[in-house]
Task: inverse folding
């Protein structure tokens, strides 16, 4: 890539349970290039440095640090309050699935039991894979794109980025051998089991009883497990982050837009990241808006009782 990029790592936030771990299996980084519009002369580098700091926290597997970098100090105490005031109730069916999965993953013979269940499925997959495999993958990619289009929580730029990811990953997934390698599957099982045991979260109530910092520490364990899982499939997440480039393409006072690019499966993917300056620091607009929406949803405090004459 051209050296006109300011070379900084970045990443998008995270992940949810086995679905997230499964998604990591579909990601591999390669090389690519694209034509770049001219950079703004004299644009300050502070927004780029903010992106770099966030990525460094993710590279170190420190979600507590990442969270502290995501919002201004004045909002951090509010985030701790939001965690404490979040509803403690869980959907009974989801809570039960959590307990069942964690019990299986932390059992003394978890690796052997999981392999006994997965190995026959790998055999079936290997035998059934054929011309129809690419058709099925294409259909799944279409469903994912349709879900992205219907997602009201994403803005147009985020939808375009997500659809591009689906396109690139779907093309890679058309090769069934990515999913039938026995040695990788066994190594992946070991990582998932090791991560589940390290989390020590047999049920969602245990997670909910933690304070925010402790919960973020648990998230860091899951993040490190996800990186190890990705590495088994030839995906070096930390090395990939180091290849990401970011530069300021628009600047207006306390508002800036960055173009962030990265290499995925031999394809260069770029997206725009709006940033805002608050109290001298630069933050992702999405993180600030999400925080403000959460604060607005808090119930109004009860009025103080009237003084007795």
Result:
């Amino acid at each position: 890539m051209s050296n006109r990029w300011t070379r900084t790592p970045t990443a998008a936030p995270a992940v949810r349970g086995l679905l997230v771990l499964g998604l990591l299996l579909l990601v591999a980084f390669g090389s690519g290039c694209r034509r770049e519009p001219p950079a703004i002369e004299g644009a300050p580098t502070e927004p780029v440095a903010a992106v770099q700091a966030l990525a460094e926290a993710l590279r170190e597997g420190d979600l507590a640090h990442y969270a502290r970098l995501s919002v201004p100090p004045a909002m951090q105490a509010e985030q701790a309050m939001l965690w404490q005031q979040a509803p403690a109730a869980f959907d009974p069916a989801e809570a039960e699935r959590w307990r069942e999965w964690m019990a299986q993953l932390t059992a003394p013979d978890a690796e052997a039991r999981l392999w006994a269940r997965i190995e026959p499925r790998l055999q079936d997959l290997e035998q059934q894979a054929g011309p129809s495999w690419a058709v099925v993958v294409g259909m799944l990619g279409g469903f994912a794109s349709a879900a992205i289009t219907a997602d009201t929580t994403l803005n147009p730029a985020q939808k375009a980025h997500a659809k591009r990811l689906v396109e690139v990953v779907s093309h890679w997934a058309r090769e069934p051998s990515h999913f039938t390698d026995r040695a990788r599957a066994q190594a992946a099982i070991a990582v998932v089991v090791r991560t589940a045991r390290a989390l020590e979260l047999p049920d969602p109530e245990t997670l909910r009883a933690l304070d925010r910092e402790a919960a973020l520490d648990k998230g860091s364990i899951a993040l490190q497990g996800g990186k190890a899982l990705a590495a088994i499939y030839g995906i070096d997440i930390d090395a990939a982050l180091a290849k990401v480039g970011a530069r300021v393409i628009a600047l207006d006072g306390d508002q800036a837009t960055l173009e962030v690019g990265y290499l995925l499966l031999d394809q260069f993917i770029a997206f725009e990241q709006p940033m805002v300056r608050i109290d001298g620091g630069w933050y992702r607009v999405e993180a600030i808006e999400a925080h403000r929406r959460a604060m607005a949803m808090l119930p109004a405090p009860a009025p103080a009782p009237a003084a007795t004459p």
